[in-house]
Amino acid sequence: MAVDTTLDRPAAGLAPGEHGRARRVWRRLVRRRSAVVGMVFVLFFVAVAVSAPWIAPYDPAKANWLQVRKAPSLAHWMGTDEIGRDVMARMI
Which domain holds residue 60? Predict the structure, then answer.
């Protein structure tokens, strides 16, 4: 017969004694400037990837021969390349 020990754990899902360890790790992470900068960069790239359909709604592989090498505009924020593909959509 198995004993259910799920009621012994805190609400956060951490084992007893791990709450202090997690807090210590977080404080140590925040004290290191390079770790915070790296975390900001990673979170920025994740946010850009998640919001890509709204930021650059054009298909990055579709060529548009009427838009070849156009300068940046409201339609194409970073312009277009040699065969009319949106540069920002290709970067994202």
Answer: 54-92
